[in-house]
Design a protein that fits this description.
heterodimer, A: six-stranded parallel beta sheet, B: ten-stranded parallel beta sheet, about 0% helix
């Protein structure tokens, strides 16, 4: 037994604390405050304010999450606010909400969204720097970068862009 | 009660609030509040339960204080320490167990 396990068919309402890892396959509503990791498994559901060392979301999560590392796996369905120096949203995952990564240096992780957005920044068209609007999330930057490169790709079909010779040369 | 298909709350996990549901539960951590399940619960040797417990079968190897209501049976194992009001059609207090409180053996 290395983790508490809440299976399907069990629902917790209230506050969950402690230093043991937790896996949720059932449901939890309320507040979670852990000095350990929590895993919302596929099929599991959490509507909560979660603070933990690591948060893995493979099921449904609605609420606020704060951790050192947050990962949404391909089966994850997330709606809320995420706050962590390192966040990974894997391909296939659904996410609606905001992300705050703060100033701290993220642990080196190939799959972290920060790493993805950094590499996306390099490919930004016309060498123009994408300013980090404090209101915009990393995902916002990532998205705008993708949109920009889409525009660039379709530039000949877009009025205004097409007649700009410099953009053709790029 | 097989523990392989039971939810487990291990030492180091503390819950304040309510646990409800229809599948078995094993408590080895700490729980304060209400547990209301249409299945069986085991308060394991490390488990500490404070509050109300309602379940089909209730087995206590650890500590329980408050109220416990079993639809079928309540068993306090030799390692159990219980200070509670028990209500169940069948109650068993095994030799070595500590118990103080009331017992009501309702007709089921």
């Amino acid at each position: 037994m290395s983790a508490s396990k809440i299976l399907a068919g069990i629902r917790i309402d209230g506050k969950l604390t402690g230093n043991a890892d937790i896996k949720i396959e059932g449901e939890i509503y309320g507040e979670v405050n852990l000095d350990s990791s929590i895993f919302i498994a596929e099929g599991g559901k959490a509507e909560a304010k979660i603070k933990a060392i690591n948060i893995f979301l493979a099921g449904t999560f609605i609420g606020d999450a704060e951790a050192d590392f947050i990962q949404i796996t391909p089966t994850g369905r997330v709606n809320g606010k995420l706050k962590a120096p390192a966040i990974s949203i894997e391909k296939g995952a659904k996410f609606t909400g905001s992300i705050e990564m703060g100033e701290g240096e993220a642990p080196s992780s190939e799959t972290s969204a920060e790493a993805i957005s950094e590499s996306a920044d390099i490919e930004s068209p016309d060498g123009e720097e994408i300013i980090d609007d404090p209101e915009s999330s990393e995902i916002g930057i990532l998205k705008s970068s993708i949109i920009d490169s889409t525009i660039k790709h379709h530039a000949p079909f877009l009025p205004g862009r097409a007649i700009d010779p410099e953009s053709e040369e790029n | 009660m097989s523990s392989s298909d039971a939810s487990v709350i291990i030492p180091g996990t503390v819950i304040n609030g309510r646990i409800s549901g229809s599948t078995p539960l094993r408590l080895e951590g700490e729980m304060k509040g209400i547990i209301d399940i249409s299945s069986d619960i085991m308060v394991g040797q490390n488990g500490i339960m404070e509050g109300d417990v309602i379940a089909n079968n209730i087995m206590v190897e650890g500590r329980l204080s408050g109220k416990a209501s079993g639809r079928e049976c309540i068993v306090i194992a030799p390692s159990g320490q219980v200070k509670a009001e028990l209500t169940a059609p069948a109650v068993s207090i095994e030799k070595g167990a500590k118990f103080s409180g009331k017992i009501d053996m309702i007709e089921s």
